Amino acid sequence: QVQLVESGGGLVQPGGSLRVSCTASGITFSTYHMRWYRQAPGKEREWVASITPTGAASNYAASVKGRFTISRDNAKNTAYLHMNNLKAEDTAVYVCCANRNTGDYWGRGTQVTVSS
To answer: How far lies 3's CA from each of 35, 78, 91, 93, 109, in Å?
Structure first.
């Protein structure tokens, strides 16, 4: 069956960096757009970043542009979100999504907490 598993979350100080990963199985990973979303307590889920199947193009929410970088390694069936200059307001559960015109698959998320 299809599985998307996020990893790499944790506690980081403001201004710090972290990389979260999303490893997929059960799909032809290289044919899916990959997206990262996040959801903070008491808030709606927010789209963070997207990358095309080949990795040739990416897009970012205004709140993270210039600080976050999405990437992928199709040989490893893995997408990444590199987060720099983290702020307290980046604290959330980060969830990955594999998207194609036939539908979406979602992971369960990894917690990122930015606090001193």
So the answer is: 15, 12, 24, 18, 12
